[in-house]
Design a protein that fits this description.
Strand content: over 45%
CATH superfamily: RNA polymerase II/Efflux pump adaptor protein, barrel-sandwich hybrid domain
Oligomer: single chain
Strand order of the largest sheet: 1-8-6-3
CATH class: Mainly Beta
Order of helices and strands: EEEEEEEE
Shape: elongated
Largest sheet: 4 strands, antiparallel
Number of domains: 1
Number of helices: 0
Length: 79
């Protein structure tokens, strides 16, 4: 089973964010609640946590890419 890691809505008026840094690489194990990626909104740097424990199998938004709220950032494979 896979679960998408999506860009959360961080506040009123925030409609997009730029990917600043991935803290995990494809193939690495992640745990639920662990910070996977840092994104920058118009107001601040925000950390996006893993929604499940498993293996990061896809990075859908590269560093430097700007994505809309709720866009898929990555994919985690898990049981």
């Amino acid at each position: 089973m896979t679960t998408n890691v999506n860009l959360p809505k961080s506040g009123m008026g925030i409609e997009e964010a730029k990917v600043v840094r991935w803290l995990k690489n494809v193939g690495e194990q992640v745990t639920r609640g662990e910070v996977l990626v840092e994104v920058e909104t118009a107001k601040a740097i925000q950390e996006v946590e893993s929604p499940v424990s498993g293996t990061l199998v896809e990075i859908a938004a590269a560093v430097g890419e700007t994505v809309p709220v709720h866009a898929r950032l990555g994919v985690i494979d898990h049981d």
